[in-house]
User: What shape does this take?
Amino acid sequence: MTENAVEKARKAAEAAAAKLAEAQAAEDARLAQIAAERAERAREYDRDFLAHWTEIAREAVESEGDKSADYDPGTMGFLEGLIRFVAGREKRQTVLIHAQNAESALGISSAQSTVPESRHYSLDVVGYLAQIVEKEAARRHQEFADALEAKRNRAIDGEWQ
Assistant: This one.
């Protein structure tokens, strides 16, 4: 290669590097803008969730039936009544955790928190019956938790108003 060809190649490489740097800077700015928009939507979702967490918790519990006393032997088996009761409690616990996470994300101190601590309830049912109830309740709880998280992600992605 001649000296002239080397110089031309060097200039072309420098021009390409400058173009690449410019494109990378534009991409970085675009990604930063997207991240900022997502962060703002996350804050907005968290503020809205905190404003309504008590209603969401109530609806979560009521979606399964508020009390085991709702058991109706004519329409449901005993096991279904227990499953509904436990699943409702677990759903409420998930709402409390989301509300606590929202407070944390918004910088609300534990001293100013309005969300109560979640507590674990043990189910006093003999051996395998307890396992069956908890497994089904956990499945329903996971469906609810996944749906709630998906709703939050849609809001953060700007797909929900």
